[in-house]
Specification:
It is built from 14 helices and eight strands. By secondary structure, the chain is of the alpha/beta class. The chain has two domains: about 5-125 and about 195-295, Malonyl-Coenzyme A Acyl Carrier Protein, domain 2, CATH 3.40.366; about 125-185, Alpha-Beta Plaits (2-Layer Sandwich), CATH 3.30.70.250.
C-alpha cells in the first residue's frame, strides 16, 4: 500500500522571512509560533525579520527552523494531509519526533534550544567547516578523508553527494584533493563540524536533557526513522537522538528503507528543497515535493 512520508530538513536552507506566510494563513501554524514564543520570546520575530547573519548562528538557527518546520507540518495536518511515517535530516529529526508525538511541542522546543547551545559551544572550540562533495563515490570520499586525521564523511545524502566535516586547515587541503580527483567541493552554510567527533562533547549533555524532558521511553503515534541506523526507532530513544550529534546521517539508506516499506510520496517540511532534490537523485520512481506544493494542491 502506498504511503506518505513527511521529511524535515536540517540547517542550511534558512532565510529571512521564513514562516511568515504560514503564520498569516494557518491557524494551526500560528499557534505553534505562539507556543514557542512563550518559551523563547522573539523567535517568531527572528524568523520573520531576522538577518541572514543572525539566522546563521547555530543557537538561533535551530530554534527558528524548529518552529517554522513544525508550523508547516501542522498547516498540512490542518488540511487533512497525514503522514504514515516521518524522518528528519539532522536537526529535522528533533522536529519530526515532536510532530510524531514522541514528546510535546514545548519539550521539543526546549530540547532544540539546548541542542543548538551545545553544538554552538563545540563549534566555538575549534575552527571547523563543512563541504558537500559532488561527483565522487562514497568509497572515494572515504578514501580521501582518510588521508587526514580530522576530516570525516558525515552526511551520506544521495548518489554522488556526501557532506564532509573537519578541522578548517585540513579541510582546505582535503578540498584540493577532491578537485584533483575529479570531484567538486562546495562549502556549506553551517557553523560547525556537525555529525563528527568534534560534536562528541555535546552528546552526553544532550542525552541528559532528553531524559529530563521525558518521564519514560516515548512511543510516538507515527513511526520515526533514525538518521543513525536508517531504521525506525525502537526503545533506545535517548541513545539514538543524542548519538546523532556525532555520527553520520545515513540519509540515502534511510530513504531507501522508507521506500521498501511502501513510501511512494515524500513531502519536504522546511524552508527549501534540499531534501526534495536529494530524494529525486535517490529514485525517480517516487514523488518528492515541498510542503508549499502540497498546500497549493490542497488549497
Amino acid at each position: 500500500m502506498a504511503k506518505v512520508a513527511f521529511v524535515f530538513s536540517g540547517q542550511g536552507d534558512q532565510y529571512p522571512g521564513m514562516g511568515a506566510d504560514l503564520a498569516q494563513t494557518s491557524e494551526a501554524a500560528e499557534k505553534i509560533f505562539a507556543v514557542c514564543d512563550e518559551i523563547r520570546p522573539g523567535t517568531s520575530a527572528m524568523c520573520f525579520g531576522g538577518s541572514a547573519e543572525d539566522l546563521g548562528v547555530t543557537s538561533n538557527t535551530q530554534p527558528c527552523l524548529y518552529v517554522m518546520e513544525l508550523a508547516a507540518a501542522e498547516a498540512l495536518a490542518e488540511r487533512g494531509l497525514q503522514a504514515d511515517c516521518v524522518a528528519g535530516f539532522s536537526l529535522g529529526e528533533v522536529v519530526a519526533a515532536a510532530f510524531a508525538g514522541y514528546y510535546s511541542v514545548q519539550a521539543g522546543f526546549r530540547l532544540v534550544m539546548r541542542r543548538g547551545e551545545l553544538m554552538q559551544a563545540c563549534a566555538d572550540r575549534v575552527r571547523t567547516s563543512m563541504v558537500a562533495v559532488l561527483k565522487l563515490s562514497s568509497e572515494k570520499v572515504e578514501e580521501l578523508a582518510g588521508h587526514f586525521g580530522q576530516v570525516y564523511p558525515v552526511n551520506y545524502n544521495c548518489p554522488g553527494q556526501i557532506s564532509v566535516a573537519g578541522q578548517a586547515d585540513q579541510m582546505r587541503k582535503f578540498m584540493a584533493e577532491v578537485w584533483e580527483n575529479g570531484g567538486r567541493a562546495v562549502p556549506l552554510k553551517v557553523a560547525g563540524a556537525f555529525h563528527s567527533p568534534f560534536m562528541e562533547g555535546a552528546r552526553e549533555p544532550f542525552a541528559s536533557a532528553i531524559d529530563e524532558e521525558l518521564e519514560k521511553s516515548p512511543i510516538g503515534a507515527i513511526p520515526l526513522y533514525s538518521d543513525v541506523t536508517a531504521q525506525p526507532y525502537g526503545e533506545n530513544f535517548t541513545e539514538l537522538l543524542s548519538s546523532q550529534l556525532c555520527n553520520p546521517v545515513r540519509w540515502e539508506q534511510l530513504v531507501r528503507n522508507m521506500m521498501e516499506s511502501g513510501v511512494d510520496t515524500f513531502v519536504e517540511i522546511g524552508p527549501g528543497r534540499t531534501l526534495t532534490n536529494m530524494i529525486h537523485r535517490i529514485s525517480v520512481d517516487v514523488k518528492a515535493v515541498s510542503y508549499r506544493e502540497m498546500l497549493e494542491e490542497n488549497a
